[in-house]
Structures are given as C-alpha cells and as structure tokens.
Amino acid sequence: MSAARGLLLDVGVVFFKSAWEVADDYERLRGLPVGTVQGRGPLEGEDELWNAYERGEITERDYWLTFASRAQERGAPLDGHPTLMRAMFQQPGIEAVRPEGLALVEACRAADIKVGILTNELMDFQGRDWVESQPWFPWFPVLVDSSELGARKPDRRPYEVAIEQMGMPADEIVFIDDNPTYVNGGVACGLRSVLLDVRDPAAAFREAAVELGLPASVIP
Questions:
Q1: Run means of pLDDT, 10 residues per run, the chain, 220 residues
Q2: Inter-helix orientation angle 156-166/180-188, to 10°
Q3: Cα–Cα distance measured from residue 151 to residue 158, given in angstroms and rounded to the nearest whole number
Q4: Which residues, at least 6 apart from 218, have a Cβ–Cβ distance to it below 8 Å?
C-alpha cells in the first residue's frame, strides 16, 4: 500500500495529554492537596469509574463529567472557567500538547502532508476563543468538532465531513484516536485508523508516521 497523504487527529488524550496525565501538575500549580483530582483511568487499576466505562455502563462523556464534578466537590477551583477541563488545561504552567503528537504534526507539515482534527468535544471542553488563540491552531486547515456538528463519533457523519474537507480518499488518511469505538468508526469509513494507548502513546504516533511514509524516528 502506498503512503498516506493526510493525518487526522483526535484531540483529548491524542494531540493533548489526558487529564489523568496533567492532574498532578494541576494540583501542584494550584496548591491543592494531592488526590483532589481523583481517577487516573487506565494509568491505574483502582479507577472504578473508568472500569464502569469499560464495562459499557456509562459513556466516555459521562466519565469525564463525573471525573470533573468529583474533583470540584473536593475543592478543585474553576478559576472563572465554565468547566474543570478548561481550568486544568488552561492553567498557566500546564503543557497541554502531547510532545509525540507535536512531533508528528511538525514532520507532516515539513513533508507537505495535510493535517486535520476530528474531535468530539474540543470546543465544548475548551472554548473556541481559546482554541483559536493557540499557536498550533493555524496548522490544522481541517477541524471537525462533533459538538458543533450535532453528531458525535462513532456516527458516520463527523468522519465523512472530515474526509470531505481533507480532500482525498479515506484510505489515504491516517486517523489516530484513543477510543476503540471511535477507531472502529474510522475503519468503517475507510480511514487507516490507529488506536492510541495512553500507557504508550509514542507507539501509535510511530505507527502513523510509517503509514505516512515518514521514519518512525521522527517521534521522540
């Protein structure tokens, strides 16, 4: 199979680090007691709420909303933001972007490979004004956010809109997501879909790099 010509990235856990990974820094920067933000998903074995999600008892969105509400109940401040996700990721000192994701996007741009975003709730969680103010925002000529589209992954519509905006056949696009259901949705739409495991994110980016005709070594 020839090299792909486009890259689509999910944001939460993929282009951005997960809330699990920034929680400790957020607590430290805000002077909060350790454990204010509880739950580390697959990074620990004792996150019962995450286990409930994996058993199909709650949705991923339910997980994150409950994750946030529990932290707020323990004293995590919103600092004027409408959601804890914004407070955490927009906290000065938090490095939100995942280095491996940044490295792949930079390598794609240098190789004239088109890059885009396909996310369920970037604007909902972070706000369009903040997103558009970020230095990486102009790098993505395609940004499809299901929260603004009215249909969420794994519904076919977000994928189809993103494929159309990428301007190339689906089988020439690599799509990275951390949710197996959404990865399967990408497969069903013909995308070269790669599952990111938060416990080893570099592996997914290296796999994607090879699919794009880039050396795996572009990923640190």
A1: 95 97 97 97 92 93 94 96 95 97 98 98 93 97 93 96 98 97 97 98 98 97
A2: 60
A3: 7
A4: 103, 104, 107, 209
